[in-house]
Structure formats: C-alpha cells, structure tokens
C-alpha cells in the first residue's frame, strides 16, 4: 500500500558519500547557460517520475491519515482531523514498537557489519576457489526474504527436526524453542544471516580499492598486520562502513517477512513495519495505518539525518570530512 | 532494441483489442450470453470446482464462468471495494462463515432464501442446520456452504494401547489433560494445540475451550468478558496443558505444523479441524494412517464444544447477472455436484460438512469411514447461537461476527502467546486484552 513508500530521505542522506564532486560553478556566458538548461531538461523526466512515484503516494497517505476509515465499514468514511495521530501517540502500541524496531534494526546492522567485515577480510586474500567461496557467501542475500524465513522456520529452527537444534544436541546442549522463548534473537539471527553478504560486498569493494603500495610501505616501515589494519585499512574503509550502515539500516527498517512468517509480532518483535501491516490488513483500519505510516516516515527521516550523522562523527578525526 | 519496441507495440495493440472485445461481450450480456466472474480463495476444493465448471457450462448454454483466484486478504479487499463502489465486477464470491452474517446484514449480499426454497430438487433442508443458522440473519440466508468443518479430538490409538489408556467418545478436558501428561515423553508430546498468534490460529481452538469453561468474549450488552474468572481459568488451563504436555515451541504451531507432527507420529493427541482427519488417513503423506481414532471435542461445562466453519458461495448485491449467478451457486452446492466430484475426481475429494445427504452416499461412506460419522455427528450437535453457557449477541462459535474481531482476536492472541512463553502471566495478558476487547465492544452498542 501507499503507506509502505520508502522514506524519501534515501537520496539526500546518501549524498555525502555517493556524490564525489561539488556542484558546478554558476555558468557565466550564454552557451554555458544553454548547456545547463539542456542538462536540466534531460533530468526533468526522471525527476517528475520520481516525484510522481514517491511524493504523490506520500501525500495520499497523509490525506488517508486524517480519515476515519475501516475497510469493513465503507459507509462510515469520514474526516476526523488528527484523531488517528492521537491513537498513535497515546495508544500502547507505538513506543514498544519503536523500541523493537531500534533493537532489531540496530543489532542486526551492527552484527552483520562486523561479520561482513570479517568475511570481507578473509575473501580479500588470494586462494584456490576464491570465486566459488565468494558466490556461496553472497547466496543468503539473493534468497527471497519470505523463502529464507520459511527455510529458517522449517529446516533450521524447527524444534524436532531443525538443524540448529540437532547441532546443539550433538554437543550435549538441550533443544531450544526458538520462536516461543527467544523471538527477538530468532529475528536478529535471520536478518544478520541475510544482510552479512550485503555488508561484506560493500566492504570487500572497499578493501580491494586500497592501494597495495601503501600497505607495502606500511609493512616496510615495520607496522604489523594489526597496526596496518587499525591505522591504514580502517580509516580507508570509513566511507564504505558509513554507506553500508546507512543502506543496511534503511533496508532493515523495512524487514517484514521473518516477523510475519515466524514470530507474528510476539515477544518484542512487533516492529513499526509489522505494526503498520497489522493496522492496515488485520485491523483493516486504513486511517490509523496511514497515521502510523506517516509517523514512521518522520521518525526514519529524523534517524537518518541526525542520529546516523552524529554516529558517524565518532569515526571521523576531529569532525572533518 | 528495435525488436523490443515492436514487440511492445504489438503487445499494446493486443491488449487494446482484447479490452475492446471484452467490452463487446460485456455489452452482449443483456441478450443471451452471460459470463459470470467468480472471485474465490485459492484452496483445493475451489480448484476442483474450476476443473468441473465445463459440466455446468454444458448444462447451461449461454452461461460461462470465469474464475479469479485470490488470497483471502486480497479477496476481502477486492469484494468490499467492489460492493462499496457498486461496480458489480463479481457475480459470485466465496465468503467465510465469519463474514457472511456481517456482509449480509450490511446488505452487500443477495438474499438467497426464496430461490433456494422454491427449488424442490435443490432440497435446502438437506444443508446441515447449524451451518445454515450461521449463514442466516433474521431468517434470511445470504450464502450456501460449499464445504464445512467442525473441530474434533484426534488421537493415536497405538500410543493409547501401549499405555493402556482408553479414550471415551465424549472426553472432558480434565481427562484429556490426564492422558496428555501420561503420554508425554522426551520423544513424543502428549498433545498438539495451536499456539501461533492470530484470531484464526490460536484463538480458534482456545475460544471453544473458553466457551466450554463457561467464558465468552462478550456478554449480551457487548461488555467484554476477557478478564472474567471463566475466561482466565480456560486460558490458564490451555497454557498449563501446553507447558506440561504440549508440543515444544508452541508459538510456531498452527494447523499445518501440528498436522506435520501428527503425521510423523510425534504427538499422541491433537484438537483441531475435522478436515485434518482426511489428510491423516492418506497413507501417501501420513505415517499414522489407519492408526488414528477420532472423538468429540473435549468439554468441561457444556455438552458439546466443537467449532463451526464453512466456506460459502454468495452473490454480491451489485452483481448484474444475479439470476445466472444464483443458478451457478446452486449447481456447485447441489447433490449432483457432489456425485460429480466423487465420480470424476475421487470420493475423498467430495466437499464435506455441507449436506446431510453427503454422509449417506455409499461410496463416500466407504472412502471416509474413519472420520465421516464423527464429523456429521459433531456438526449436527453444535449450536452456533449459543455455544457457551450464556447467551451471546451474535451467531458463531470460534469467532465474534463484528468487523473488529479479527483485530481484537489477533492482539489478544499475541498477549496470550507471551503468556505461553512465560514472558507475562495469563492474568496480565487478559487484563490488557480486556481493554482491547472493550474498545471494540463499545462500538457495537
């Protein structure tokens, strides 16, 4: 539905790392101005297209969010000002859901980033079967999320025949009822498994763009592998880590399939995206769902612009870029 | 690139001409030829119906039937939008028992009572009375059941024999709990019960337990009764039974998951939909075929505790071909159709739980000997007008026929799932549930 429109912040927030150069200086003479006009004209269709595709649904969502509209009572649609927002902010659902979203998204991003870095460093070396290993490593990201959730539910985590419990039993540990007892861990585990390859790919690209000469010079100067990694590789990877975190957060905020298929929102796994789905398709309350959607977008924009930027400053020496 | 463009142009042309053509055929409906559009959920019995529609079209020249299969949620959205806008896209729709009385009362469905009564050959009195009651509002029948089900207790006879236990035909929940504890081992669970949150998952069996313990969702004034002592006692019983002798990881489990564990011989008992029996008796997919016994749903304070569900065919009030649509609905739910399914597709595929006469067809009785008698017995015994101890302001057993119920049931189920996992107490969960249920109840006043 329209409420699931991706947050419109994505291009803006990605700007610092995505565009290398500064905007061109103001054209002074006529031919230059004409060229600029042409350039703008060429960009226009794409711009209109993206405005139509993202902003019109968003405006419609804002409009819906001011309506009293239950799908099973189509004759009682009425304008009700900000009543839906009152429900969002005074009801018991929003804050716990925001917390779950932060916990699930945050831990999955951090874990998959760390694991991704680890595998990227391993794959950066030359060895026989490197291509095969790389392809295998990427596979989890290529599996459809719903299919992945079903595989985890039935083959990995099933309490009777699942492989994870079988492995636990072989080392003498008791079986774990994952969905019942550890729903948050289950979801974070699955999302980490799925997004590690994504993080790994970005970081691997970063590692491979590092100049070998610099590394050689470092080793000539007597730096050990750890010092080289800490002082040469990590600073080089900073931008890659930033973009991986940003894109990963945006994608993981929308994680839905494993929650719908495995935990059904119990035990602190009712993230904003699942809550939204519940309001729209189980509650059938279009107005309330739209209000939740609008608030989610606003929160996402806030997180993307302020929180992540502050977070990145930690990495940056003296705050310069 | 050029080739692609040309293909695109050709494709576009084809679509335009197809639209134009369908426009023509649409315009032609007023004369003789009618194309009915049937929107249906995509489950196997409906696919069988599509396979056999040729027979109907042959018997009724001039009427063609076009099937549109959808997921349940999509179907609901499509039909409500169609009815609300008066577009009349659909002539026949499949509607669950939960929604028939709601849609009927809203005036969205055609009242089928006169056309069913007038047709002697159709024999409307043959439809199982409780099902008919559940599909009627104020004496008007808005849909006909295509197939129906109740809930029964299924048990593994070998395990019972090995433990020296005997299952009575009408067990109480206390007896069942006792058996479950005796049969619960490290390898096999005593009983499988749904624990997956959802009004149609966890709360289908749990609501029947609540009712037989004397509880209910709402009293006659639409005041919620979720935190009442009876409701609490029932949920505590259910949660404790799951803890003591239930399957592991209950929050993962609903119909399909329990079915798998039963078929693999990992569980001794299962309380769930009666249609499960036909799958458990299929030797190609089940290890326990022929080893299962079937008895009435366990009770506590009521006489009977089975639920009642049916998938039904109805004609939207906006249909422009209501007469032809009614003809089709009657054909698909007739005695003749049942024989047709049996003779062409096999007797185990006859849609069960709709007509009494189904259970006297000799071939069907033979094919479904293990579970047909008990299904008929339970389905005739349940009372959808008052399934619990106290009168209720709606007709239906494991659901409340108000639009808000699926939301209420879903949210309370999530709270109960937390109690099953031990993250909260049943009392806390139901205290929160009471508020949710009361908010919905207030809207009915």
TrEMBL record, chain A:
The chain crosses the membrane at residues 42-64, 98-123, 135-154, 184-207, 240-261, 281-308. It is a multi-pass membrane protein. It comes from the Bacteria. It is found in: Cell membrane. Residues 98-307 form the ABC transmembrane type-1 domain. Residues 11-27 have a biased composition (Low complexity). InterPro entries: MetI-like, MetI-like_sf. Belongs to the binding-protein-dependent transport system permease family. This is Sugar ABC transporter permease. It comes from Cryobacterium tagatosivorans.
UniProtKB/TrEMBL annotation, chain B:
Keywords: Signal. PROSITE patterns: PROKAR_LIPOPROTEIN. Gene3D superfamilies: Periplasmic binding protein-like II. Residues 1-22 form the signal peptide. This is Sugar ABC transporter substrate-binding protein.
